[in-house]
Amino acid sequence: MLFFVVFLLFSILILRLGEIQIVFGDDFKREIQRTEDITVSNPVPRGKMFDRNGNVIVDNTPLNAITYTKYQNTSQTEMVETAEKLAKIINVDTKKVRDRDKKDYWMIKNPDEAKNLITKKEWSYYDDKKWDYKKIYNLQLDRIKESEINHYSKEDIKAIAIFKKMNSGYALAPQIVKNKDVSPKEFAAVSENLENLPGVDTTTDWERKYVFGDTLKTIIGNVSSSEEGLPKDDLEKYMARDYSRNDRVGKSYLEFKYEDVLHGQKAKVINKTDKAGNVLAQEVVSEGQRGKDLVLTIDAELQKKVEKIIEEEMWDAKRRFGNTGLMDRAFAILIDPHTGEILSLAGKQLVRDNDTGKLEMRDYAQGTFTTSYNVGSAVKGATILTGYKTGAIYPGEPIMDAPMKIGQTVKGSWRAGGFGLINDLTALKVSSNVYMFKTVIRIAGGHYVYGQPLSINPAAFNTVRKSFSQFGLGVRTGIDLPNEMTGFPGSETIPGKLMDLAIGQYDTYTPIQLAQYVSTIANGGNRMQPHVVKEIREPIMDNNKLGPVIEEIQPKVLNTLDMKEEWIKRVQQGFHMVTQTGGTASYFKGASYDPAAKTGTAQAFYYGSDRSKWGTPVMNLSLVSFAPYNNPEVAIAVVVPWAYQGNTGPSINGNIGKKVLDAYFDLKKERQSDKGKKGDEQNTNNTNQ
């Protein structure tokens, strides 16, 4: 009976095995051989930036890099073992290793001890699903003694730093372990030991290269490192657009604003894996393409010259004048008044180095549109045109310039006793304050009597500001860079403040607003949107050439002045008189490019980096100009906040403005000469042939 029962059982087992092999064998075989396709996107270098003449401003520098790819079936213990091997042949920065990282490492190295940190009762909560694993893990971390993690050697700390980087990546996506300062010895050592370092590879990475150093650095912006990856605040937005957590993205200004253009098309690789997670094969779906290139409106050579002029003039003023202690910045903008293309966007700032205590000159181009100041008489062109438009004054109208007394307050022009009976053109030429005061008093419906109180309609503030905004003063210019500010309008509506508004000593304006304002006057009344990006182009392999144009940024008129053409021409004429004998910018007299200009000096208060001196009375200096007067091809705005204390100081605004325009036209002449020489050489060669 026993033999029969055993025989029967074996017969049933054989029949069952036969059924599985014969009937269901193919199904099980297919299941075992079933693979999974996992697509991984690999980042590519960012697009480059060129100046308007095709010179590279921002490039990508190749770097030797060591990467780690975590496979689906790789355990934490295996990763730690690889990290420890790698720590013996490369050096890494360990400054960012925290106690938490050390505890994670201890947990992997000591699994039994880690398990014993949780009581049986607590494990029962986990088994009953009352607690999740995260709670258990956090309890384990809290119960690890300091003595357990304080004995690690330098080699251990290196291994922890490497493991941390290895563990931060996605499965099958290469994660950078080290890409800076990888020595040839390290690169070779890792390459020779790849068989003993599963998942580790040597490759080429990139970093941003700024060809002109710090020039324009603040408006070019920054790119996150591979360690930083995606910014936390925008993580979901980027993840939804096929970014990985450790992808590098633009963090500020052009790098940020044109992220979609510069980021490029990722290389895509399909990894075929079996059920265990082993990679069976890789298939490249797309090679990827580096980001598209930006061509800027900036002339890099001109930009360098402008920056040098600003630096030299600031240092010279500091050296020669003892009342310039609070002056720490200066700005100069050159713009094409007909297209809004910015040829130079220069800003410099003196900053005291924390380590050396010495003043250093740093790029502050972003300050041209993110900071605002009282700019003084430079805005008087807008005041005159507002007077024409409202009917408060008519072209050529004479007005007596003499000190004004309103109640007990005396206000007048910069010359003691005033300028006498002058018209609008002379008022611009000599920068009369009184002419502007009486103009806005009329706009406000006021009646001035010497020594008597003055009553005005507060609505005049809105009238003047609305008119000024048509020139770009007190509103966003629309520049294609983030974080543009509008400036600050004053809140009081008393007569004296209206008079200050008329001469640029009440509301604050940004340097880029001044550039747009003078451009609007120069081109005959069109407020053009300023921009620093000229074109977007396809990337090509030849680093010295530009690819085909994808998009060209067209000039954009934001609004046109609702004013007569002859009014604008009259203000242009007044600006031209400013540069002649007797004008406040007579240092331009005789310039071959025949400019027009308006200077500005504003009594203001210091609100810079030294908070202890906030509220100190200072003088702000400014200058707007365009040239040539009869056919403007360039407009400039110069602003030097907190230039000096007291009644007199350096004419740094005029020095910068004159030298900048000289540099522009000298460079233009030089290039035309070089072009002519090349043309002559070409003609000679053709003749010889």
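That was protein one. Protein two is written in the same sequence-then-structure order:
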Amino acid sequence: MIWAGTLSYAAYSIGAIICAIAAVWVGSRGDPNRSDRAPAIAALALTANWCFAAASFEPSNFMVELTEIARNLGWLFVLFRHFANDGRDESLRIVRPAMVALGFVEILHFALLLLAKRYSFTPEIASLVFETAVLFRIMVAIGALVLVHNLYIGASVASRSLLRWNAAALAGLWAFDLNYYTVSYIIGAVPGQIAAVRGLAAGIVAVPFAFGFARAAAGLEFRPSRAVTFRFLSLLVIGAYLVMMVAVARWLDLLTGDLARLAQVGLVIAAGALALIWLPSQRMRGWLRVTAIKHLFKHRYDYRAEWIRFTHTIGRTGFDETSLQERAVKALADITDSPSGLLLVPDETGALQIAAKWRWHGDEIPAPAAPAALSAILEREELILDLDEVRDGKDHYGERDAVPQWLRDDRRVWAAVPLLHFDRLVGLAVLSRPPAMRKLDWEDFDLLTVVGRQLASYLAEESGQAALLEAGRFDEFNRRMAFVMHDIKNLSSQMSLLLRNAEKHADKPEFRKDMLVTLRNSADKLNALLARLARYGPKDTAKAEPFDMAVVARTLQKRFAHLHTVSLLRVESALVTGDSEALEQALVHLVQNAIDASDNDSAVALEVYSDGVCGKINVIDNGRGMSPQFLRNGLFKPFVSSKDGGFGIGAFEAREMVRAMGGRLDVESREGIGSRFTVALPLLAADQLIRRSPDPANYETV
């Protein structure tokens, strides 16, 4: 063992000399403008002092341990000052919490030294203190290596050439310590061979470190990696948790008997339950993320990452993907970490209706979801609604009174982002509250405003494409009508030919008989064709006359009696004005759709009643129901049919017929439950009163 002692003495002596020379060289020839120059000289001097103490005493001596603590604190401070070479305190603020944590762990070694010196009565206590101290040193080495990595990766390209020697030296120092203490923990004692060359390793590290001060480090800027930072914090939390559990378990070894076993079993159960509840918690992860962003970064958002994720979410395509409306909600929700959201879109009156849901569960959304007054305020002011402020009674532009009650009552609702395209409101995204509680700030408002405008352009583009598609369908309809007109022309030609032949053969009985049959067939074909075509032309408002909606409902029930069960649940007299035949035709479409959507043994119900202003007919079924997306984008789109050769304009035609009489067609539906179509026409008395009113706008509001 004499040669091991001699080797250790020589290695530490050489290390002390090299570190002292490096400190003098940095002080005399190092760049005087660097803010980390003085801390570097102090760290090299403390390292030389530690090498001198280790060469003079045994490695476990109190003085050696104390000088090693001072050496490590010095190097941590040097690493901390490296982040300040850009001359701004902001860089220091970013890494200060991590440095304080590592420094605190290192200072705990002093308490362990005192504990070992005073209370190490038994080998068990001494072993426990040793293992705890080694774990602390491993944590400090890992944390310092992560910070060195972020220092170099976060520096600009030009600054990396100035940092390469310093970063390499610091990485070598902490990497050697990490391996040294890892081996110590595994074997449960200080590895003599590795300990003997620690001094020489410190001297080798000091050479490139001092060489790195030969060049200026102006322009250094720290830009930490968010992903690496979050992973580092997560690992640090998990590591601290494991270290705490190991330390508690080791301390419990001091107990004896049944009490020790009971305590250890209870510790295992408690630790496992805590890990299962806390580690997967979305709320805890959200809190950790918000805390890290608040204290470690200048800005809340990594705009490059957010834009890449936004583009990926919106640009997804495929048969199994969600609609653009749902992806738009998800794109906004991902930015704020909201777990769910809604998309409301304005209808023809300006009121907001539900268009899409993304992971939204619970209460049904009323129809309309928000009044036109709120749409006007959001469109004019481009205001992002902070629902917590609304609930607290704050009002900026009069939006407090326009916000519907269901948005106030639902505590999940956190923010509402207007989507504006050329200063026109195309939608309103409602976001739920993120797991980690926080308040909206200026950065949220700025980013959500920009993203909202981008989403509005996508939605407007999709709407334009839908309009072009609809125009193409109208063109297809016109081509179909060309064939119909060709048939009419053929019938006209046949009758013209018949008339010419009649001039020659009118006196023949056989000809007269054939002529009557031909005329009857031609007339039937023309009447059927004209009746069909008349439904697509403009309505004749001159035929408006009073009629009872109850009579129309009873006629409709008799018409479908031999096809399907149609029951009258409620029949009240409702005298309205309009075209009874047009209303009956519109209801035929609705009842037929209800029958198609229902089972054979499921009745379709009709209700006729008056609310004092309008007469109403409800067509109710318990069929498959329709999704909000289909209600918005497919139900009233013409020329889309699931039947071969069908025109696909039933629901569209029914709505247009009702509108032509000054009425309104509304629909409510839930998938798997059924649908309710409501036809509302102004009562005769109300219609006469409105027509006498000097303000014609009143008629439109009915």
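Residues 442-505 form the longest helix (64 residues). Keep this in mind for the problem set.
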